[in-house]
Amino acid sequence: MTPVQQDRRAVLGFLLAIVGLHGALTLSGQWHDWAWPAIAVSFIVLVLICERIGRHVPLRARKIYERTLALGFPALVLAVWEMAGAMELISPVWFPPPSAIGRALWDVTVTYDRFSETSLLGRPWLIPQEFRAGGLAGVGVLLSESHVLATIGRVFAGFLLGAIPGILLGVVMGINQTVRLMLDTTLAAIYVLPKIAIFPVVMLMFADPFGEGPKIVVVALAVFVLMTINTMTGVRTIEPVYLMAGRNYGAGPLQMLRHVILPGALPVIFAGLRIALGTAMIVIISVEFLRAKQGVGFMTYYYWEVLIPEKMYAGLVVVMILGVTLTGLLHWLQRRLMPWKR
Known about the structure:
Organism: Marivita lacus
Number of domains: 2
Oligomer: single chain
Low-confidence stretches: none
CATH superfamily of the largest domain: MetI-like
Shape: globular
Subcellular location: Cell membrane
CATH class of the largest domain: Mainly Alpha
Protein name: Nitrate ABC transporter permease
Structural class: mainly alpha
Family: Belongs to the binding-protein-dependent transport system permease family.
Strand content: under 5%
CATH topology of the largest domain: MetI-like fold
Keywords: Cell membrane, Membrane, Transmembrane, Transmembrane helix, Transport
């Protein structure tokens, strides 16, 4: 029997095992009591089935197969979640099904909250009308009510303010041992501090402690420490042969920095940027929980306070969408700056 035939028989056996397990529990009237263990076993068997199938996917269809796994598994989880809510395996009050969360997401998108005078996207469908009535100032007022734009603006400003100096200092620490010895312990001590814990200290630094400044600065501090450590590591892990080649070809300090050190450290730098971006999102959402009247974090916490869990989950979905979108933009930038890694 060939390996292909063996795997086909194995896949068929796994499928029959799943059907037999759920069928036996259903016929015995115990499926509801044993639903979650049965579902867990089914997911494990599904992994085994996908592994058997993946062994024989031709190279030309490999990307389609991998994309199907990447998108199909979350879709399957959502389907199980929906089914579990409908069959009362979980509380639909505290764990609303995906369909209810989708309706809530649509509602917060198209509805203007007159109590907080905010909306999710800033009602972009009214931009033509506001532009005719008040010009760009009217459009700006309209967009200023957006939770999403408020959060993105804080993340973007804090990310730039922290990443650029962090990369520069990381390069210096990677090159110069004296600076590294002076700052390494201090950065290690600051790194382990919960960034949300220093938010009250940051608030004391500003004349308006409830304005945008403290929110942006606490994000910048979190990004700065991460980027400094990652960039320093990237510079120190450059292969010595590249440095020797640059010196042998007569490269000066600036040429070494531009053509050898920065390109050599870029993979680690971008890995740090991805981590720092995720940290920036976590920090700003936490800050918006505590001290904000606008932003996706504020919206999520607000709907928790008023006990509308499906809209709270909708806020979490928006956070995940923002994270995936911003990470995708970072990947695009990485491909542009590192064409040799494509």
